[in-house]
Design goal:
alpha+beta, elongated, 5-stranded antiparallel beta sheet, single chain, 6-stranded antiparallel beta sheet, disordered N terminus
Length: 898
Amino acid sequence: MSGRSGRSGHALLGVRTVAGQVLLLQVAVAVLLIAAAVTAVVWQTRADGEDDARNRSLAAAEAFADAPGTAAALTSPDPGTALQSSVERATRDTGVDFVTVHAPDGVRYADADRALVGRRAEGLDGAVGRPAYTEIFTGSPNDAARAVVPVTGPDGRVVGLVTAGVTIASVGDAVDRHLPVLLGSAAAALALAVGSSLLVSRRLGRQTRGLGPAEMTRMYEHHDAVLHAVREGVLIIGGDGRLTLANDEARRLLDLPARPEGRKVSSLGLDQGTAELLSSGRIVTDEVLLAGDRLLAVNTRRTAPYGTAGGTVATLRDTTELRALSGVAEGARERLQLLYEAGVRIGTTLDVVRTAEELAEVAVGRFADFATVELLDPVLRGEEPAGEHTEMRRAAVRGVRGDHPLQPVGDLVRCALPTTPMAAALATGHAVLEPDLSLADGWRAQDPAGADAALAYGVHSLLAVPLQARGVVLGMANFWRSEQPAPFEAEDLAFAEELAARAAVAIDNARRYTREHAMAVTLQRSLLPHSLPEQDAVEVAYRYLPAQAGVGGDWFDVIPLPGARVALVVGDVVGHGLHAAATMGRLRTAVHNFSALDLPPDELLGHLDELVSRIDQEEGGAGVAAVTGATCLYAVYDPVSGRASVATAGHFAPLVVEPDGAVRSPEVPVAPPLGLGGAPYETVELELAEGSRLVLYTGGLVEHRERDVETGLSMLRSALGGRPERSPEETCRAVVEALVPSRRRDDIALLVARTRLVDRSRVADFDVPPDPAAVGEVRAACGRQLEAWGLAEIGFTTELMLSELITNAIRYGSAPIHVRMLYERWLTCEVSDGSSTSPHLRRASDTDEGGRGLYLVSQFAQRWGTRYTAQGKVMWTEQSPADGDRQPVDTLLDDLAW
């Protein structure tokens, strides 16, 4: 016992032990603190004394300077005699060490020390021009805290100075009076600190068993190495069932809560069997327990005699390695399954944006918490990307949550800094991993505000992968983690690149399709009418909706014809793509050319049928799809008679909406599509009341995979009926809303024309006898009619043209001869006869007496021509009432000969 006590005392007093060093450190700290405190108190006491001396000096000086008679005494012949007694009394009564009265130049008039009277005081230069002030004066006769107060006379002039002060020695005496108390307090504090340090050091010496710092450090290093570095969990449980210690592996294996030490084992949330074993104190060897999803081999031993009596130490070993290997295989299988799903789900459409969205949807959930896809602007437009890749357009964002801090779709995403993961991925062509975004300085520098928002949201890891196809960069795919605590790892790089490669091929296919589709749409729109021509026969509205999956060959047209008539056309070319659009343009041009000949609908369709057959023969061997199967409906409406002539080549018959809102389907002879040949086309005449709506449409409006044609036609009739007051534009809107699906697989063309009738007062008819003498009479009647219409300005040229046309009809035609004048937007003059003889152009020679009449007609009329009817032909002219009389040129060119 004595030997142990000696060693303990030596350890307590020795500086080599932890306890001794702690004692010395505590005593040193206490001495330093007490010395600092005493110094601070002394300094503060002295500063307070000086401040008090300043204040007392200023009060005494101001009181003496403001006293009655001071200013008068200073202006008296002998100020010293008058003020000396007052100065001595003030020095005694105010408690200051001196009060002195000076002349303005600093010479003492009166002083508490009579020996100083008459001597110039130091440090008063410039005091005359200053207000009262205090200072710490150093100099003769004493260092002092001094106040200087000027004294002014009745005229405001300074007549003297009053100084009062307390010597620094007096201030020091006040501090010295406090020193015994301060030193006594310091000694008591030091004794208390040393005593408490001795107690702490003695207890620490017992607990450390006299070990020095090096031994303690080595011991704890060994302890940590053994306790926390081993791959076995270690638990120490006290005899009361409370957890005393748990190493890191034990915390992981048992999923212990934070700070479990000191808590009952039964309150740590363990499985019931595990908690019972650990708190029971039983000695077991390699007993296997199921803890969560782990299989643990548990060994327990008593801590005595190595530790607290009654305690237990338990070791835990994870035996789920096979399960871990199984988990790795399961992860690989899930990756393969995800790649398979990506191949199935990505690229289901030929839409670039939708393909990008599919990539993001596949990745979110099982691989990433958020996925964003950025594409170059040329890719979104279907163009081949080229140039720099520092700016991309966000095309898709998907995540496990709806709210996210990432830039929304449509934003411009920049990766100009080469240190960003995105720029690095584009530069290398490979995926770049950023496991901890809080350390990604380049990413944060690109967009500091956005990066801070993402980090605050919880986004912590990023995988940036370039989207490349055929060696061309199309964009970027970025995968983010926020909900999953584990960051992306190096083994995720290969999977992300494989996923991005598959998506890039689908995006490139969609891009090329988009380019072709855009070219076809551009071609198609360029071939369709950009605006409707001006005419008065019908009020027209239309809708043209191209297919969303490809360009088709649907088309429509409105063509003004002579005699205020109008041709309404709709057609459909089989197939999709550029060939269908180009063929549609050829057919539309052909219809325009045939309509210029003013052919009846059935003859026009016959010519169009021959054209399609010839196109198929010429292009059939070039691998180009045949046009055979194209359909067309051609209708000519005459606002004078109120009749429409309709013929169809394999197309849907038009619908007629009566003025009362009733819908009827006129009987139109069925004819095969264009290009088949064989059966002739027939024209049917429809009587249309004024205000009727003639509805022409293509098959895309009524045909759809979700409904049959009859259902579509029934829906169309329902949408058209019951609203007689609707305009053509309102009718188009109602039909589109009722029948057009959200996803169009075919083009849709819809044409609605509301009929008008020409006012009968604007039509004049004249029968002409086949006698040249009747020309003058008819000409005069026509002139009177022009005057009645207010067209006398163009009367001469009109009568001249009618004379030529009527004369030619009498001379070369046959009865019956008829003249009709029609005044709407244009003035139309028509001369019809029963002959179908075709005129032809010839040049009249200088010796010819005739052959120049119709040349004059061509010079005076804006348009003129010939059309053939079942009874013969009609020669017609058109004039603009606003043009007035036109003067023919002198040179005679080609003329018509019969």
